Each structure stands twice: as structure tokens, then as C-alpha cells.
TrEMBL record:
This is Galactose/methyl galactoside import ATP-binding protein MglA. Pfam families: ABC_tran. CDD domains: ABC_Carb_Monos_I (cd03216), ABC_Carb_Monos_II (cd03215). It comes from the Bacteria. Keywords: ATP-binding, Nucleotide-binding. The gene is mglA_1. InterPro entries: AAA+_ATPase (IPR003593), ABC_carbohydrate_import_ATPase (IPR050107), ABC_transporter-like_ATP-bd (IPR003439), ABC_transporter-like_CS (IPR017871), P-loop_NTPase (IPR027417). It comes from Paenibacillus plantiphilus.
Length: 509
């Protein structure tokens, strides 16, 4: 068999946890091989070992049949292994070309040979259908395009094996389809791809085989075409799962959030949200659907107090809060699961315990007369950790940076739900979560609703919006295209509205 890479019986331990427990993964040349596993299962660790970022405690790696030692990422690069990380590693003020050649520059005499590099990048871009302008600045191009720059960076270094770590988590639906085509182009030219993803649909659409790991152990490798999504999901979490959210009809009460004629600028001082009005009542989940970048972030930030609107007002339980600070909004009952867990959601170098009290450390029992009560904080954090199944090596004292992405997300959601807010703003709450955790988080959001709380859900996942929401507001270019009852609409109608086709109907409450 022609294997591009074989990872055999790989073991890696971190303090308090066996992240990889004799994992075996064999990547055939020319295949797209999905790596599936629940949050914290050990996928990133395994790929980190293949890319030379970590050293395995035990086990063997073969590249094209030959045993190798990958001491650092430079060795991996020389062996033809490239990786696109979950969080891109690009310099935003540099051009595409400058980013790609960074670290492998060639010179003509003393001068950097940018011209030859640009030409080669253009050729590569064309050959693989990447459509990247080598002269564009990173800060001016979309996230999807930035990802392609990362792919180009690997191709420029002659990578034969490409590792993509949750590549679609940050992409729009169209960009996801485009990436599928790009991956096919890549394997068409003989490259091999390891695709880390939680999205079973994407595995079905793109991958040939799939290796499933659970709690650091290999569960098996399956042929994707002949294995159902449900079977893969069950292999991953070790129990049966449902994809449907089980909820009864909502019984909305009084208005909790009232947004009136809100207009908000974006960072470039352009109007991103235009004259937007919406109300969310106690006991209902209102979803905001829209293609990324249509004013969702600005709306959320204006409600949470992170951005000043140009005009309009925000009321919470009848009280005008438009000018209030973030802290006083939290105090009045707003919880916020932010879009970017690492920038806004957590302080990565703090422990889980410290992160769990970021919004309440100044209150009893967490502190008294300015002195923190560490024991009370630990206890509080441990309760959240247990109830949201946040997995880490050292419990409440683990540094958040060492947690897997999905476990970081679960910690944030736990923290915000623990506040028991009257209004919970949940932005992409299940981004990067495995199906088992998604099922759990969805249940908790519905539980908040059933307790009589208001939930505002912003998500790019149309399935999530349709499954969870009672009403759905659709945003297009900063404007409210319409509000529909979730039970009376479908994916097609919402999709049309997201594209700007007006269909105010279905009944605004
Ligand atoms: N540098 C580190 N130090 C300590 N523990 C770590 C480190 N890196 C990972 N871990 C732990 O190892 C386990 C596996 O983490 P890993 O990031 O490999 O999971 P994952 O499958 O990629 O998860 P996710 O889907 O949530 O990103 C986790 O429990 C994590 O907390």
C-alpha cells in the first residue's frame, strides 16, 4: 500500500492526562483522510506531533515508508508536511507574497527576490484554483482568502501532505463549498490531506476515509462512503446521539430585550447595522440568520456594551441601557457568549478558576472587601467544570491556553449560563464543538428558555438557527430583511432572505 504518512502507536502524555494513547493513523497518497474525535480527544496533539511541534513519548512515524524523526516544524516542512492551524499565523500588514515567503526568502544579490516569488505564487494559485492576489494585503482580504494564503504557503514549500485543522470553522457556506473544490484539486495533483473537523456533513462530502479517536484512543478507521453520519457520531462519542433538538412550543412572556432603530458603525466607520429593530421576550429563543459580516457582530456589541451605536436605543426589561457600561449591563442581567473565544471570551494565561469569575470576582462570595476568596472561586469553577464537562489535565487550576478549543468553548458557555442571565446572547455557541457537546449545549440553551429567560442566538449554521430558534430574524447588509416563525419556515426561505430577497411574513410577534 502506498502510504504518504503512517503514525503508529503514538503516545503523548501531558501533566495529568494521556492526550494520545497508542494512536495509529495511516494516510494513503492522494486521499482526503478525516480525523474525527470529540473535544479534547487528542486530534490537535496528534497533528502537532506530525508537524514537529510536540515529541511523542512513544511510537513511530513513517513518511513514504521511511521511519523519520520530526524534531521541529522545519523538519516537517523539509519532509513535505504542511499545516494550516485553526488560528492563522499571518502578518496582517504584509502582502500575500511577503507572508508566503517569510522564513524561506530567496535573494538576488542582497535584494529580496519578491518578483520571482509573486510569479510562482500566482502560478500555484492558478494551478490549484485558489484565486489569490499575491499583492493584496492580508488585512484587506476575507478570512476565507487568508486561509487560502495559508494553503499557498504550504504549496510554496512543496508540501505533499497537508493538515487542515478545522478549516471550515471560520468560513461562510460558500467558502466551505469552494474549499471542497480546492481540496479535490489538491488530491487531483497527488497531494494527501488530513482534515480535522467536527462536521460530519463535510466528512461525508469530502473525505475518503475517516479515523475516529475517543479520549486519546483510536476507535477505528472507516470507509466514508459506506458509513453513515450517525455511525461515525456514535463511534466518536461512544453512545447514541440525536441531531434534532427536542423542545416544546415556546410560551413567550414580557419583552426582555427591545432594540429600536439601532444604527451601528463598524471599525472602518461605515454603517454596518442600519435602523435595526427587534424584540426578544422572556421564554423564547430568537435566532439571527445572515451571512457572516452582515452586521451581526455590530448588533451584538451594541447590545453587550462593547460598541457605541450611532443612533437608536437598547432596552433591557424596559430600562434604557444604551449608554451603560459593560459591567452594569452584566449586573442587570445580560450574559454574552462572544464570537471569538480567545480574544474576547477568555484570558488565555489565567487558570480556568480565574476565567470563571472574570465578571463576578468583585462580588461575594468570590471576594470580600477587595480580598479574593480563592477557595470559594475554586468551588464555583469546579461546579461549572463538572456541569459542562470541561476536560483538562488539572481541573480548575489548568491554564486555559492548554485546553483544547472545544473545552475552552464549553468553559465560556458554562460561565455565562451560570450567571443565569435574563438575556443570554449566544454567538456561535457551538463553534468547534463535537456533536455530543452540541447536543448538550443546545439542551442547556432550551432549558434557559424554558426557565423563562430570553435567548438571542447568532449563528452562521443555518441548521442550528432552524433547530433552536422560535423566531428568526434575517440580516442582510446591516438591514432587517424579515422576521419569521421558525415552525413556518425552512432552509430555502431563510437562504433566500439571507441573500437579500425580502419576504416579511410568517408573522412578526
Ligand atoms: N500543551 C499542553 N499542555 C497540557 N495539556 C494539553 C496541552 N495540549 C493539549 N493538552 C490536553 O490534551 C488533551 C487533548 O487536547 P487536543 O487539543 O489534542 O484535543 P482536540 O481533539 O484537538 O480537541 P478540540 O476538538 O476541542 O480542539 C486535552 O485534554 C488538552 O487539555
Amino acid at each position: 500500500m502506498d502510504y504518504a504518512v503512517e503514525m503508529l502507536d503514538i503516545r503523548k502524555e501531558f501533566p495529568g492526562i494521556v492526550a494520545n494513547d497508542d494512536i495509529t493513523l495511516r494516510l494513503k497518497r492522494g486521499e482526503i483522510h478525516a480525523l474525527l474525535g470529540e473535544n479534547g480527544a487528542g486530534k490537535s496533539t496528534l497533528m502537532g506531533i506530525l508537524f514537529g511541534m510536540y515529541q511523542a513519548d512513544r511510537g513511530m512515524i513513517k513518511v513514504s515508508g521511511k521511519e523519520v524523526r520530526i524534531g521541529n516544524p522545519n523538519v516537517a516542512t523539509k519532509l513535505g508536511i504542511g499545516m494550516v492551524h485553526q488560528h492563522f499565523k499571518l502578518v496582517s500588514t504584509f502582502t500575500v507574497t511577503e507572508n508566503i515567503i517569510l522564513g524561506s526568502e530567496t535573494r538576488k544579490g542582497l535584494v529580496l527576490d519578491v518578483k520571482t516569488a509573486s510569479k510562482r505564487i500566482e502560478q500555484l494559485s492558478q494551478r490549484y484554483g485558489l484565486n489569490v492576489d499575491p499583492h493584496a494585503k492580508i488585512e484587506d482580504i476575507s478570512v476565507g482568502m487568508q486561509q487560502r494564503v495559508e494553503i499557498l504557503k504550504m504549496l510554496y514549500r512543496d508540501a505533499e501532505v497537508l493538515i487542515l485543522d478545522e478549516p471550515t470553522a471560520v468560513l461562510t457556506p460558500q467558502e466551505i463549498l469552494d474549499l471542497g473544490i480546492i481540496m479535490k484539486n489538491l488530491i487531483g495533483e497527488g497531494k494527501s490531506i488530513i482534515l480535522i473537523t467536527h462536521k460530519l456533513k463535510e466528512i461525508k462530502a469530502n473525505a475518503h476515509r475517516c479515523t475516529v479517536i475517543r479520549r486519546g484512543k483510536t476507535i477505528g478507521t472507516v470507509d466514508v462512503a459506506s458509513t453513515s453520519e450517525l455511525v461515525m457520531a456514535e463511534m466518536m462519542v461512544g453512545r447514541s446521539v440525536t441531531f434534532k433538538v427536542d423542545k416544546k412550543a415556546a410560551s413567550p412572556g414580557e419583552i426582555v430585550l427591545q432594540v429600536d432603530s439601532l444604527s451601528v458603525n463598524n471599525n472602518k466607520k461605515c454603517l454596518a447595522l442600519n435602523n435595526f429593530s427587534l424584540e426578544v421576550r422572556a421564554g423564547e429563543i430568537v435566532g439571527i440568520a445572515g451571512v457572516d459580516g452582515n452586521g451581526q457582530s455590530e448588533l451584538v456589541e451594541a447590545i453587550a456594551g462593547l460598541r457605541k451605536p450611532e443612533s437608536g436605543s437598547v432596552r433591557l426589561k424596559g430600562e434604557e441601557i444604551t449608554g451603560l457600561s459593560v459591567r452594569s449591563r452584566i449586573h442587570r442581567g445580560i450574559g454574552h457568549i462572544p464570537e471569538d473565544r480567545q480574544k474576547r471570551g477568555l484570558v488565555l494565561d489565567y487558570t480556568i478558576a480565574e476565567n470563571m469569575v472574570l465578571e463576578v470576582y468583585h462580588r461575594e462570595p468570590h471576594s470580600k472587601r477587595g480580598i479574593l476568596n480563592k477557595a470559594a472561586i475554586k468551588q464555583y469553577a469546579e461546579r461549572i467544570i463538572a456541569s459542562f464537562d470541561v476536560r483538562s489535565g488539572q481541573g480548575a487550576s489548568s491554564i486555559v491556553r492548554s485546553l483544547s478549543g472545544g473545552n475552552q468553548q464549553k468553559a465560556i458557555i458554562g460561565r455565562e449560563i451560570e450567571l443565569n442571565p435574563d438575556l443570554l446572547i449566544a454567538v456561535q455557541p457551538t463553534r468547534g464543538l463535537d456533536v455530543g457537546s452540541i447536543e448538550y449545549i443546545h439542551r442547556r440553551l432550551v432549558e434557559q428558555r424554558d426557565k423563562g429567560k430570553a435567548v438571542l442566538l447568532i449563528s452562521l449554521e443555518l441548521d442550528e438557527i432552524l433547530n433552536l430558534s422560535d423566531r428568526i430574524a434575517v440580516l442582510n447588509q446591516g438591514e432587517r430583511i424579515g422576521v419569521v416563525n421558525a415552525s413556518e419556515t425552512n432552509e430555502n426561505e431563510i437562504g433566500m432572505m439571507m441573500a437579500g430577497v425580502t419576504a416579511e411574513g410568517g408573522g412578526e410577534a
